[in-house]
Design a protein that fits this description.
The structure is a homotrimer. Chain A has 2 domains: 9-96, Udp-n-acetylmuramoylalanyl-d-glutamate--2,6- Diaminopimelate Ligase, Chain: A, domain 1; 105-315, Hexapeptide repeat proteins (UDP N-Acetylglucosamine Acyltransferase, domain 1, 3 Solenoid). Chain A is flat, with a radius of gyration of 26 Å. The first copy, chain A, contains 4 helices and 40 strands. In chain A, the strands form 7 sheets. Chain A has a 12-stranded mixed sheet with strand order 8-11-14-17-20-25-28-31-34-37-39-40. In chain A, strands 9-12-15-18-21-26-29-32-35-38 form a 10-stranded parallel sheet, with no helix packed on it. In chain A, strands 10-13-16-19-24-27-30 form a 7-stranded parallel sheet, with no helix packed on it. Chain A is of the alpha/beta class. Chains in contact: A-B, A-C, B-C. The interface between A and B is large, with 62 and 66 residues.
Chain lengths: 344, 344, 344
Amino acid sequence: MRRKKGLKLNLNELAARLNATLVQDEGNEVIIEGLATLDDALGHNLSFVGSAKLRDKAINSKAGAFLVNYDLQLEGRPCLQVENVWRGVIQTIDIFYPDEKAITGIHPSAVIDPLAKIGRGVHIGPNAVVEKEARIGNDTEIGAQCYVGRAAVIGENTVLYPNVTIQERVIVGSRVILHSGVVLGADGFKYEVIDGLPCKVPQVGIVVIEDEVEIGANTCIDRAFLGETRIGHGTKIDNLVQVGHNCRIGNFNAMAAGVGFSGSVTTGTGCIFWGQAGIREQVTVGDGTIVGGQSGVTGDLPAGAHVFGTPAVPLRDAARQNAALKRLPDLIRRVNKMERKPTK
Amino acid sequence: MRRKKGLKLNLNELAARLNATLVQDEGNEVIIEGLATLDDALGHNLSFVGSAKLRDKAINSKAGAFLVNYDLQLEGRPCLQVENVWRGVIQTIDIFYPDEKAITGIHPSAVIDPLAKIGRGVHIGPNAVVEKEARIGNDTEIGAQCYVGRAAVIGENTVLYPNVTIQERVIVGSRVILHSGVVLGADGFKYEVIDGLPCKVPQVGIVVIEDEVEIGANTCIDRAFLGETRIGHGTKIDNLVQVGHNCRIGNFNAMAAGVGFSGSVTTGTGCIFWGQAGIREQVTVGDGTIVGGQSGVTGDLPAGAHVFGTPAVPLRDAARQNAALKRLPDLIRRVNKMERKPTK
Amino acid sequence: MRRKKGLKLNLNELAARLNATLVQDEGNEVIIEGLATLDDALGHNLSFVGSAKLRDKAINSKAGAFLVNYDLQLEGRPCLQVENVWRGVIQTIDIFYPDEKAITGIHPSAVIDPLAKIGRGVHIGPNAVVEKEARIGNDTEIGAQCYVGRAAVIGENTVLYPNVTIQERVIVGSRVILHSGVVLGADGFKYEVIDGLPCKVPQVGIVVIEDEVEIGANTCIDRAFLGETRIGHGTKIDNLVQVGHNCRIGNFNAMAAGVGFSGSVTTGTGCIFWGQAGIREQVTVGDGTIVGGQSGVTGDLPAGAHVFGTPAVPLRDAARQNAALKRLPDLIRRVNKMERKPTK
């Protein structure tokens, strides 16, 4: 829960809090009450200029003052210069819209099995359910109506928003954020045809979510057939993403909304998957790979690949083919004409 | 909740209720007990003919009678002529399958914070949770197991089906319908790289859902970074749709299932997005734009655009390119042949 | 709930339980404690070789023994030969990781309407809600926080994982598995423009899920406008799938994650839809059709079709066009050159 605090700070006070250098032509007394974008900012707002390209827009903005990098000045407008604008933005939000932890304690309507182990400083919201042998680490928040299955393990300082479902034996690390509607540990999609009929192969593996992962609303991470499905440290996953059974997602990956991973996909460190991309089963993707929006990856990708299209090809090839395709109707006409021309 | 009422009406009675003109050759006494499609209708069903193209199908249908527009007659079959067939269909459903409002009152298992404000005639279902300072307008239904977060505001005559999650400070208008699994106000997907690591930028904005919006099952609308994510009046959103942070969706848009909007997309009035289409961040789309299924919009679109493909191009160009692509393998053979031909 | 049992079996005991033929060169006393893949297996694991191609990988694996088909031997490694490896795998899982049924009975926190009919041996988990006139068959498990709407009917031996939502009048068969977040029976997406504004057409039909269907996490199956939306016997649906109103999905279909069906799609028996495919409304697809990942089907498909691309074309044509597209940039250069050549 973050809410505006009603705080008012003058620029000197704010500069001190942000460890910023105040640059202003005149001694006008701007009072800042919150943060806003260049488009929305009014005189009582601090705004921020993340790129020198936004300089003119900033100068024309109504903001009372601006967070900028040390190398930027906006003539005649008060600036707070910092080393990193985005760190400044985050600090400013923490000042004006502080994060209020949920009240510690277990709501009386929550159903907690007596054999669950609940750490110190834990919040468990109304109508949540925590099953037998589940373990919840210190200072973790379990939102209203969440479900924590039997023998599931959740680390410290982790936040589950309302309506998260964590199935049996799933392991979630510390400082993880799980948004509403997330389902961790549903069965992988695995059938084998026996005697002509599809037979369900029981999924007895687990899901492991490492520390500092964030998972968006209504995203699903399936449990492994055997072994584990693993999401690496610091990986950030948007809403409505599917990660199939036995995937091994590396550290610090980013997946935009609607991405789908089939089973047993392996990714390196720092990969980016843009919206609605899909990855075929068993594929291995190297470090730092970027997969464009709506692309379909059908084979392994080396480290540093940047691909696009279905089936995905290197972005440069995709762009060249796409440009050529636009010229194709005309090309057909030209070839028709050449064929008609008598080669006397 | 809608259920068949067990009502039986003869055609004169039904004509009177629908304000329709009964046209029939003979005085046969058809009794109507419900509505059915041309394929499924039996003698006790009213069916409907939405288009003159369905005339033959209607004449061969077993339906007892037909709703038709004033300009259509079906020889020898009883017809109820109305000004607008679909209005007639909706009225007929309201007659035979009336909408029963949930019983007013708060179920004893619901957990309502004493500082929440609940209007007159509100229904709150079993195991629902309404947090501190939330406000729920008159005659609104909050389904079983719904979550209404702190300081969220919901208008009048709005319906939340079971299992909807509304996070803190989200604003929902009047006569809105939210289907099960909807999540309003999860954090936008926003990280900035600081010192080489992705840092979460706190999302302190809100979501505003204007009046008469409908949102399908398991759809997610993220809260804004700063400011608001807004869904305009009368917009209809299907299941499993993603609307990213700071989008400003216009009035009377329609989004089919699986559509994904990245952050900060702006749309005009009356836009249509067919299934699984995706829109890149920051894009602006003009009034009345139509985006084809699975298309990927990567740049701004003028009013009235009709686009298709990834990256999306005008539908006409996409069709021409696609037709040309089918001829490409043959074109390559023809060019090969021309090259081999000696140009003596 | 499946957990490892802590069982230890020697190969003769295991062979007897699996009705397998033990083939081993020497009398070494391998003790098996569980099942693992070739990659992960250690000396106390049974592994399995589903294909002769994996022979070398198997021989180099650390597994203590191997499930193989009767026609395969791995020199010097103990093998349990069976008629069907996958049946053996499933049986082995059932031995080492037995399925523990949830404890029979209704949790005191569940809210069950007195007019609901609950069969023998039913489990209803904490905070579940079962509405008036709902009927739940014998030995069915309703997970924590599930919602079963008014007059919904659920068969025998069916499992609802936590947080499933079943709306009013939906019919679910026997031996069905519904994963967390599934929504059955939300309204179909149907509006008609009357007097220039989109008007909601009430959806008064139902959903019918036949026996032995499995539906993945956060998947949505919409109720019909009139009549029914039907999922045929034995069909398996993965996570985050959308099935629109009035679809009639045949028996033993398989749909991978992210697939979307518009309204009124009809499919035959044994169709396969790979990840993120989309099917346009009103389309009919014949028996045994295969639709490739991310493909968009825009028209009817005959039995046995195998299609790919958007709009989908026969896989062979798609592959040929795709190969030709890769050569297109070069083709344009060649045609440019031919045009420049003087045809003296």
